[in-house]
């Protein structure tokens, strides 16, 4: 599988503090890459570097072999889309208008003809069609998250970054979002997703990158990465790993409730 | 009604309001003029001879030397202020941002006043003429906008409290500056500075209109061209960047645009506050926040509003010409309270 985006020797130092140290990572077409790790490990920073928001202090990021710093804003917007954690909208735009904004990088291009199809598919995939006429500012947190995801999907880029897309969602919508991410990968796109729920990552990711204290601990298939010993060591919490449909499920070892 | 239907209704009503405002404004005054005389005079100026045209040279000069420049100035200034307000709200992501409230207008007034007080001794008045005042007003407005922007923005968001406090500080500073100019200047200068503090369209001249009108038109066109990007900016700076917007360039360009539009308006008509607050807000309620239609409708709405306000200002007290800035603040002030109250209730606090 070909690498869409590649980070080589990436380090980020902010105010003398090393946030990321010497990370090599490839994002490949056709697979879901999950970025996992404890709070403050540097997952979001890594995502910012890979998506071109943040310049690494050392090392480089390339998109299809080109240095990401040489790619202009608009062209980059046609290569990668990003779902951020912060999704406030300042004025009362309708849900439809917000999703349509995802198509803006394609104005005055031949892909403009795909607008309607891309928007319809994105609305379908995120289960927000019943919200179409509502004002974005009146939605609940979970609804906002799904509409924002629809906007990102409508952008129709070969690489998709999702920063904690499941954070505000209920159980069913969590699974649906991850199924959507897996579906994007099946259709040949590269998907990078930051998740906290290790079992969710294990169930849907093709590859997992475990980040701890600013370093890439390991990257590989969920079964390779999620061993009870490793997860217990990195998170400082004993866990049990069981298997469901050949995928690991990670459970904390909890004491029996005292009677 | 859908937003499109409301948009059409709004455009028609605004166009009617605008025409009515212009017609009434040209008719009413110390020397009443009939609508037929106005239409006739305009047609004659366009080279079409007709029976309606006024024969009395006093009527003719009242129309062309007193009323028309004042009306066109009102249209231009109203449009400029409303567009400046809408652009400011877009880049601050906040419906409370407005040139008068956050101090851009008083910064521009201070610039203009210093051109008057010091211009003569520096040889500026001779070199630049009416443009000198406009250039200084622009510089003052630009400086104020930059200060507001960089002080009140943090992590890509504007906090309402910081925005308003910055406005208070700038208004206080510019107010003190104007007071100093009052102290320094001679009687004629003092009159002119007082006039700025209150705002008025009285005594507008064609040569001033020739500066204000083209800049308003260019500024409005530029804002409409940037309209789609302002929509994306509503998603937050990071998201706008992910959608291909060069946020830094958009920000700087918009700050210059706001200073330019506010600067020319203030340079010749003084501080006319709240137009940029009320007009975009009402239009957003009617047709939604999409910036292209919002900016166009705000320009027309601002023009109509200020023409009406000026008509009221010069007719409500017989024989007196009230300062229009006083009038707009009288209506705009309570409206601002209402907005503040609503925003506070909705977000549950001042952030």
Automatic annotation (TrEMBL), chain A:
<keyword id="KW-0813">Transport</keyword>
<keyword id="KW-0547">Nucleotide-binding</keyword>
<dbReference type="InterPro" id="IPR003593">
    <property type="entry name" value="AAA+_ATPase"/>
</dbReference>
<dbReference type="InterPro" id="IPR003439">
    <property type="entry name" value="ABC_transporter-like_ATP-bd"/>
</dbReference>
<dbReference type="InterPro" id="IPR017871">
    <property type="entry name" value="ABC_transporter-like_CS"/>
</dbReference>
<dbReference type="Pfam" id="PF00005">
    <property type="entry name" value="ABC_tran"/>
</dbReference>
<dbReference type="InterPro" id="IPR027417">
    <property type="entry name" value="P-loop_NTPase"/>
</dbReference>
<keyword id="KW-1278">Translocase</keyword>
<protein>
    <submittedName>
        <fullName>Iron complex transport system ATP-binding protein</fullName>
    </submittedName>
</protein>
<feature type="domain" description="ABC transporter">
    <location>
        <begin position="5"/>
        <end position="238"/>
    </location>
</feature>
<dbReference type="GO" id="GO:0005524">
    <property type="term" value="F:ATP binding"/>
</dbReference>
<keyword id="KW-0067">ATP-binding</keyword>
UniProtKB/TrEMBL annotation, chain B:
<keyword id="KW-1133">Transmembrane helix</keyword>
<feature type="transmembrane region" description="Helical">
    <location>
        <begin position="71"/>
        <end position="92"/>
    </location>
</feature>
<feature type="transmembrane region" description="Helical">
    <location>
        <begin position="255"/>
        <end position="282"/>
    </location>
</feature>
<keyword id="KW-0812">Transmembrane</keyword>
<protein>
    <submittedName>
        <fullName>Iron complex transport system permease protein</fullName>
    </submittedName>
</protein>
<feature type="transmembrane region" description="Helical">
    <location>
        <begin position="6"/>
        <end position="24"/>
    </location>
</feature>
<dbReference type="InterPro" id="IPR037294">
    <property type="entry name" value="ABC_BtuC-like"/>
</dbReference>
<comment type="similarity">
    <text>Belongs to the binding-protein-dependent transport system permease family. FecCD subfamily.</text>
</comment>
<keyword id="KW-0813">Transport</keyword>
<feature type="transmembrane region" description="Helical">
    <location>
        <begin position="104"/>
        <end position="124"/>
    </location>
</feature>
<keyword id="KW-0472">Membrane</keyword>
<dbReference type="InterPro" id="IPR000522">
    <property type="entry name" value="ABC_transptr_permease_BtuC"/>
</dbReference>
<feature type="transmembrane region" description="Helical">
    <location>
        <begin position="163"/>
        <end position="184"/>
    </location>
</feature>
<feature type="transmembrane region" description="Helical">
    <location>
        <begin position="205"/>
        <end position="226"/>
    </location>
</feature>
<feature type="transmembrane region" description="Helical">
    <location>
        <begin position="131"/>
        <end position="151"/>
    </location>
</feature>
<keyword id="KW-1003">Cell membrane</keyword>
<feature type="transmembrane region" description="Helical">
    <location>
        <begin position="322"/>
        <end position="341"/>
    </location>
</feature>
<dbReference type="Pfam" id="PF01032">
    <property type="entry name" value="FecCD"/>
</dbReference>
């Amino acid at each position: 599988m070909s690498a869409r985006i590649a980070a080589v020797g990436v380090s980020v130092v902010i105010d003398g503090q090393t946030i990321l140290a010497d990370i090599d990572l490839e994002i490949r077409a056709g697979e879901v890459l999950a970025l996992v790790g404890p709070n403050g490990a540097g997952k979001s920073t890594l995502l910012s570097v890979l998506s071109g928001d943040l310049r690494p202090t050392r090392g480089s990021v390339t998109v299809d072999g080109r240095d990401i710093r040489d790619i202009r804003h608009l062209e980059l917007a046609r290569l990668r889309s990003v779902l951020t954690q912060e999704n406030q909208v300042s004025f009362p735009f309708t849900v439809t208008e917000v999703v349509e904004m995802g198509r803006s990088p394609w104005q005055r291009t031949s892909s403009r003809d795909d607008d309607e199809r891309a928007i319809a598919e994105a609305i379908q995939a995120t289960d927000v069609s019943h919200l179409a006429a509502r004002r974005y500012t009146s939605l609940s947190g979970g609804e906002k998250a799904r509409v924002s995801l629809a906007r990102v999907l409508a952008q129709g880029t070969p690489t998709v970054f999702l920063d904690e897309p499941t954070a505000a969602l209920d159980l069913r919508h969590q699974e649906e979002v991850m199924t959507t991410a897996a579906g994007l990968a099946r259709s040949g796109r590269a998907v990078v997703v930051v998740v906290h729920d290790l079992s969710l990552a294990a169930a849907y990711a093709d590859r997992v990158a475990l980040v701890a204290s600013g370093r890439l601990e390991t990257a590989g298939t969920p079964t390779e990465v999620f061993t009870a010993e490793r997860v217990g060591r990195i998170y400082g919490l004993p866990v049990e790993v069981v298997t469901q449909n050949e995928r690991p499920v990670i459970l904390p070892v909890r004491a029996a409730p005292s009677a | 009604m859908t937003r499109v239907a409301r948009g059409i209704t709004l455009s028609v009503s605004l166009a009617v309001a605008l025409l009515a405002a212009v017609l009434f404004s040209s008719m009413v005054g110390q020397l009443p003029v009939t609508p037929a005389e106005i239409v006739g005079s305009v047609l004659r100026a366009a080279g079409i001879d007709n029976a309606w045209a006024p024969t009395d040279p006093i009527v003719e000069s009242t129309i062309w030397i007193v009323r028309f420049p004042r009306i066109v100035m009102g249209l231009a200034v109203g449009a400029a202020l409303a567009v400046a307000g809408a652009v400011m709200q877009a880049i601050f992501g906040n419906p409370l941002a407005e040139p008068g409230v956050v101090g851009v207008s008083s910064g521009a007034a201070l610039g203009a006043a210093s051109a008057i007080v010091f211009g003569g001794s520096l040889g500026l008045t001779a070199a630049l003429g009416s443009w000198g005042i406009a250039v200084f007003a622009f510089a003052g407005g630009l400086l104020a906008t930059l200060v507001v922007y960089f002080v009140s923005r943090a992590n890509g968001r504007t906090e309402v409290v910081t925005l308003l406090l910055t406005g208070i500080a700038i208004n206080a500073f510019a107010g003190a500056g104007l007071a100093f100019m009052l102290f320094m200047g001679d009687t004629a200068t003092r009159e002119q500075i007082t006039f700025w503090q209150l705002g008025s369209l009285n005594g507008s001249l064609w040569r001033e209109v020739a500066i204000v009108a083209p800049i308003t038109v260019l500024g409005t066109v530029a804002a409409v061209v940037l309209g789609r990007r302002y929509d994306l900016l509503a998603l937050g700076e990071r998201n706008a960047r992910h959608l291909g917007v060069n946020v830094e360039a958009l920000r700087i360009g918009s700050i210059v645009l706001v200073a330019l539009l506010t600067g020319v308006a203030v340079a010749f008509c003084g501080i006319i506050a709240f137009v940029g607050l009320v007009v975009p807000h009402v239009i957003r309620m009617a047709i939604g926040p999409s910036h292209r239609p919002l900016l166009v409708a705000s320009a027309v709405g601002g023009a109509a509003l200020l023409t009406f306000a000026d008509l009221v200002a010069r007719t409500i007290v017989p024989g007196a010409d009230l300062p229009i800035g006083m009038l707009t603040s009288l209506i705009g002030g309570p409206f601002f309270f209402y907005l503040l109250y609503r925003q506070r209730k909705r977000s549950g606090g001042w952030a």
